Fold this sequence. Notes:
This protein has five helices and no strands. By secondary structure, it is mainly alpha-helical.
Amino acid sequence: MDPxxxxxxxxxxxxxxxxxxxxxxxxxxxVEGGKQHPDKMFDELVWEHAKSTGLFFAEKxxxxxxxxxxxxxxxxxxxx
Length: 80
């Protein structure tokens, strides 16, 4: 598969190869021209704003997990 087609991103690759939904969380602020920020600015630009993102998604996954066990057949149909 040509990386130019799927944008070299894991999310794009995953959707193309695995044929499953995926999402990409953009943590860095947009920089005109698509340039990356300097690594030394990571804490200031990214980490301070995104450090609790993993916990947020873990909590949401736990909520969904509870819902799945309540109505297993409904969610099993979504995975087919």
